[in-house]
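Lab notebook, page 48
Experiment: co-folding of the full assembly
Goal: obtain a model of how the components sit together before planning crosslinking
Operator: M.T.
Materials (sequences as entered):
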Amino acid sequence: MSTLKNKYTLVSEVMMKPDDFPVLLEKALMKEALEAMGKSSLGIVCIVNEQSQLLGIITDGDIRRKLLKVQKPFSAFFVDDALIHAIRMPTTTEPTATLIEGVTLMGQKQIWDLPVIDISGTLVGLLHLHPAIRAVLGMDNEL
Amino acid sequence: MLQLVALQLNVGNKKQLLLGEKNGGGMELKILNVGYGEVGKVSIGGSLPLVFIGGPCAIESRDHAFMMAERIGEICQRLNISWIFKACYDKDCRSSPDSFHGVGIDSGLNVLAEIRKAFGVPVVSDFSDPAWGGATGEVCDMVQVPAYLCRQTSILRAAAATNRPINLKKGQFMSPWNMKNSVRKIEAFGNSQVLLTDRGTFFGYNMLINDFRNFSIMSETGYPVCFDATHSIQMPTSMGNISGGQREYIPCLVRAAAACGINALFMEVHNDPPNALSDANTVLDIRYLEQILVQAKAIHDMKRELIEKYGEDNVHVEK
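Observation: model returned without errors.
Model output:
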């Protein structure tokens, strides 16, 4: 799967920084989460507390499933705290994990994004599948 | 099941350890403490006993307000119900320019201050102008935001600035879930003592209905909820230039609300409704007050017992 060149590449070298993907505070409304996701090309939003510790994530898939289960009107759904509808214990990785470990984990879990948290639970990045695969294939400077 | 957590409250001059609670979802249920200085302190929320908020709609005169406070106080004492005296000094939402508008802020607040002192009961009054917030909060133990103004930022800011507990009426035009926006505004202005009161929801023109899901939905904010029975039976401006009402439905609506789960019950009460200077078609004749309060208290107590016995409601949306 990997080239020798990228065998020791770390997640921290490839991950997106928090300014580059949607991150919201815990009191954000569902409507704000949907807007944040719409503005980015990613299908994920991370929710953190004031200390930037990761509290949960919402993905496109979570919203699709919610729409079929939540029977409340859209106006009520939109004003819910996004955290209510978030995955509270998402699969995560650490910045010191290798890229290969991160990509393998995403494959096992069938997910496209891995929030990256440090030892204190602080959200420090997001490993997105596309740049991760490009890095694995040594295509960092292409596309 | 309810989870009990220790919470220290000021009761009278003593610090008393009461039990605060979290609901099944782990959300902290906030408890309001109403009353400053030398009045009986009233705590609202969680699994505490039902609180009554009541009085004449408007301060008609000092003597009338005193008479009402005395008579309501006797009933509440007999039933062992904590209560807060409510009366307003300025009725700014009257349908007609000829209707009684109130005794005015200075005179009204003097009467409320005297009632606090004479009866040792906390008082609440609404205010319709942000400029009146400071004076209202100086005298009143709780301030009230009128339903029509419940989303006005300037009023919410003024209410928050009083640092008193706030009785926030749900506008008849508001969904229960959107009341969270008003709560968030109050919190952003530095106040986290809110009581959310339902007073009915517009059903077409000149008609209100009660959606009893509102109490559960508004409680998701963590704040206690209240049912305003006498305004719920109002038929807004149904009689040309005044509002009508169907007060015969007050008792059944009160029973339903108590069973659904409320922390406080609000009713405007008068000794002579036909001649009341405000809300004559909706105020409750005081001769019916005791029999309604005793039922509300009994149902409220029974609901608490049932939840203790069978556990908190646990029918949830499928995860």
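Interpretation: DSSP finds nine helices and 18 strands in chain B.
Next step: discuss with group before ordering constructs.
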